[in-house]
Amino acid sequence: MTETSPSFPKDLIDLDDLTPGQITCVLDAAENFKEVSEREIKKVPTLRGKLVVIFFHENSTRTRLSFEVAAKRLSADTVALSASGSSLAKGESLLDTARNIEAMRPDALVIRHGASGVPGFLARRLKFPVLNAGDGAHAHPTQALLDMLTLREVKGRLEGLKVAIIGDIAHSRVARSNMIGLVKMGGRVAVAGPPSMLAPELAEIYGVEVYARPEPALEGADAVMMLRIQLERQSGALFPGAREYARVYGLNRERMKLAKDDAIILHPGPVNQGVELTPDLYDDERSVILPQVTNGVAVRMALLCLLIDNPDKE
Amino acid sequence: MTETSPSFPKDLIDLDDLTPGQITCVLDAAENFKEVSEREIKKVPTLRGKLVVIFFHENSTRTRLSFEVAAKRLSADTVALSASGSSLAKGESLLDTARNIEAMRPDALVIRHGASGVPGFLARRLKFPVLNAGDGAHAHPTQALLDMLTLREVKGRLEGLKVAIIGDIAHSRVARSNMIGLVKMGGRVAVAGPPSMLAPELAEIYGVEVYARPEPALEGADAVMMLRIQLERQSGALFPGAREYARVYGLNRERMKLAKDDAIILHPGPVNQGVELTPDLYDDERSVILPQVTNGVAVRMALLCLLIDNPDKE
Amino acid sequence: MTETSPSFPKDLIDLDDLTPGQITCVLDAAENFKEVSEREIKKVPTLRGKLVVIFFHENSTRTRLSFEVAAKRLSADTVALSASGSSLAKGESLLDTARNIEAMRPDALVIRHGASGVPGFLARRLKFPVLNAGDGAHAHPTQALLDMLTLREVKGRLEGLKVAIIGDIAHSRVARSNMIGLVKMGGRVAVAGPPSMLAPELAEIYGVEVYARPEPALEGADAVMMLRIQLERQSGALFPGAREYARVYGLNRERMKLAKDDAIILHPGPVNQGVELTPDLYDDERSVILPQVTNGVAVRMALLCLLIDNPDKE
Known about the structure:
Three copies of one chain form a homotrimer.
Chain A: H1 20-34, E1 51-56, H2 62-73, E2 77-82, H3 94-103, E3 108-113, H4 118-125, E4 130-135, H5 141-155, E5 162-166, H6 173-184, E6 188-192, H7 201-206, E7 209-211, H8 214-218, E8 223-226, H9 242-249, H10 253-256, E9 264-266, H11 279-282, H12 289-308
Parallel strand pairs in A: 1-2, 1-3, 3-4, 5-6, 5-8, 6-7, 8-9
Helix pairs in contact in A: 1-5, 1-12, 2-12, 5-6, 5-12
């Protein structure tokens, strides 16, 4: 399996780092690993004796848990670190903390940070693999890969698919990584959101279609990805309120009719039900929101293997 | 062992869920597992490759640790989740969090929550086993089972034993689960506490004797279970103060003479020494407070096995 | 290996507890364990089925992580406990918490506490091994042992070495444990620091040389150990400020010339770069600050083994 990716990179910071062939390789490996989570004994010895350090600076259930579960299903050991309770509270720089971790000979660092660029900054200075679990508004490559795995699983391919991404495009690391990944794999991406959440440059930079209203983005879409509105971070600056947002941009049965009949609904979670989409759609058979979570474990298992058992690392 | 419980329930929310035969089955299994914790290598492979999610919304040393140790001694993997640091801090509903966890294919959820009914609510909506580690003033079934294991171990039986439970009966999940369990097993339960901590309906609902003073409850008792006074939660509303409480309801050598000569003393911990009981009784040979903790690990090992390796689950 | 330490103590509270022969035994064992962290599969089955409880009351990255990694590389299980989230938040005494932990049959307790004497207090009351991971201004024996391992590794011996320790000698558990250990092993220790951070009694109690200025301590030293200035704890009482401190006591290239040509630089971390030492020295080839961290894992592996597999315990 790793033979097909002759130069898999040391780190995964964003999907820029991977070729289409390598993305396919990750998705194929993930597809194989899915079966492990369905076994009676959900464990393979692949990474026995390896140490994965999980370092989250931001709140997270799903992603942190998903990485922990992925590591344990591969028989790796995990140690967790959070900003509070660490030496960072003593004023140590993040790089010093990371170099100290490195001196304990871990096999991979999974890091989430509120500031864009932190995982990449560390990756360039550390000798062992760094896996970006989300940094600021920059990138969330494992989310994009699990989204792509889910799409490919249901649709049989990524090439030629039209995917609508709706919400706060400009500030979303999920949108950014998906735009890069989907376009790279031959997909067609149409994004839509309030003017305060869009940037006209997106079209050019990422090769996507940009709309101020959701309707043209939804038109003929194979999949609709609704982004989370960060209600807890908004001071009302970017949009008037949750109700207004739901009325104009939220997904509901009516609006969903614009997409293809067999279109599926994705959301990176946690969902604000009644805001990004109506509760009936969350439970609709077209919703793949929970299968996305299941695929997340498989994608992270694949990436941990590919980075730790990387035949290309010196 | 599991053969003798032909329809063990999917979840354990309270002792209502178990028949007397099933309670005996849990206690027998726990008795067998006790030996594992005394070995040189304190580990059996029973739950290898299984994942136990431990989700505590309230402070706890003993119970959380006890479940973690139980899971690890069975070779299961554990992942921990707390309210802070989870997506709940982003406003996600508890059910959404639980369904997301479910999508990662865990084998059991151990949950403690401040609100009565939460574990049962989740259990009805999730396909995998839910184990209540204490919910509000509702139930604490693993505590009651470890209490019963301790009683049975010392007294050789549960049937016909008189157990006095003294303290804040009305607001105690420990008292409630013990009343249900002990009466179900043929025990005789006498409860006592200040009027603000009793409810006359208890007699009828649970089939127990209710007294306003500890003396008649202690009279001829085989065991005395002192409940923790929640000093940290009291605003002085339920009783005048710790000293007054100790004088009227606290256990001391004098009062202990009312019980049988070979009566034992239980407490779910943490103990407020000098309030619920005098320090000399905590260390008295009749005290089984620390053996209760040892038994807690064994009871939780038994329950994890019975729920996860449940032959009745589809 | 353990044969050479016929009466290894039940606990490790400070280096007072160990004879020179036992210290050598720990360092030899650690040297052997270093190799495990460099393997492809970084794990040995030595402590399989053993439970290590890690109880940190103070912030720490390095030490907590180092113990967790050490335990996992020996195949032990670990459970972590912090002050918040534990029953201590319910007002339970530390001893009660520890006795409850004991009742769950752990194999070792690793404890860090802000109050001097706490690990020793618990060790005398618990039947299982207690390992001091730092208590107040009292002792930090695993740090001193990893410092000694690093020194011995580079210099080939400890006897006859001159080690300068510079900083807040009077309030540093690192300094205290190192003074005891190094003098015990035949080293010569010279300490220096501002008057508010020294005590004239040190010379007599520990058999070290005490200087008010760094220069005479550095003179001809084989190694320089810079202590961390607790900027976060200082209210300006002990020294005028970080800049003034750096100018008079900080290590720089110029001052380093006083030491031997092949002198090495140690620091327990986290380093305040530009305060205790200039950033160029942190990255200098004479700096062994990161090798110290690597050695920390090995020393803790050795100690966990020697305490848990102690042939002398009844």
